Amino acid sequence: MGSLLKVEFSRAFRSLGFAVAIGVGIVICCWHFWENIYPLRNCVYVGPYPLSAFGKWIGGENTSLQGVLYYMMVPILCALPYAESYFFDLKSGYINQITMRCGKKQYVRAKYIVTFVSGAVTAICPLLFDFLLTGMVLPAVVPQRGFGVFPIDADMLMAELYYSKPFIYHLMYFILDAVFLGLLNIIALIAVHFTENRFLVMLMPFLVYLFVFSVCQMLGVGQYCPAGYLRPSQMFISSWYIIAGELLLLLASGGVFLYVDTKKEDI
């Protein structure tokens, strides 16, 4: 399976889609930096508390257009490198050649792994870039409560960690975002069996993400909305039970895909 994974990872990370996805993400982050961070270079100590990179980078605040744009379109970026490859393999007949050499079970598992990893990496790379870029202008001052500078309230997830060990807080959020968006990307593999449109296959993770966002907004239950709780700035107050439940749903969906597609005689 190692050689198969090597081939599939090469398809994902050497693809035009990966370059476009990372490029778009970095452009959004540079736009955010130029409009929201660079003008503050001489204003770090103006106000009741010094400005901090933790409260101003694209994932650390809730006010910029670029932050909203990135966290809404990130499922599309995650799908660009590799999500349609399963559809292409089925329609082109490539799957018949590769399964004769390595077996269907290993092939399907490799698809799952690479789809997950490519989505996770694509989502996180621009965020890391923006965090580092912001840190070049603003100091990593430890956040403090009570100054109205930072978005995290006492009743939000990991609030104590945010105000005591912000680097660990953000590391945990990077991991959460990578895992969630990687699992969300698996929906594209499931969509292959329900549509003949390659673009709809790629868009399916985004459509599910947008559907949940719209329903949560209409019902006034923002705590269930990934577009809000995936941001380290936490647009909505959620809980670990909700996040764990939605992660388990995505994990279960991927498990069904693995079980069904490795058992089917003809996929």
Please give a structural write-up.
The protein is mostly helical and 267 residues long. The protein has one domain (2-263). Helix content is 69%, strand content 0%. It has helices spanning 2-13, 16-37, 53-56, 65-79, 85-92, 94-102, 104-135, 159-164, 166-185, 187-191, 198-219, 226-229, 240-263. It is elongated. It starts with a helix and ends with a helix.
List keywords for this structure.
about 270 residues; mainly alpha; about 70% helix
Secondary-structure map:
Elements: H1 2-13, H2 16-37, H3 53-56, H4 65-79, H5 85-92, H6 94-102, H7 104-135, H8 159-164, H9 166-185, H10 187-191, H11 198-219, H12 226-229, H13 240-263
Helix pairs in contact: 1-7, 2-4, 2-7, 4-7, 4-9, 4-11, 6-7, 7-9, 7-13, 9-13
**What is the terminal separation in angstroms?**
19 Å
Shape verdict: elongated
User: Using DSSP, what is the number of strands?
Assistant: 0
Secondary structure tally, helices: 13
The share of residues in helices is: 55-70%
Please give the oligomerization state of what you see. Answer: single chain
Average pLDDT score: 92
Summarize the model shown.
The protein has 267 residues and is mainly α. The chain contains 13 helices and no strands. It has one domain.
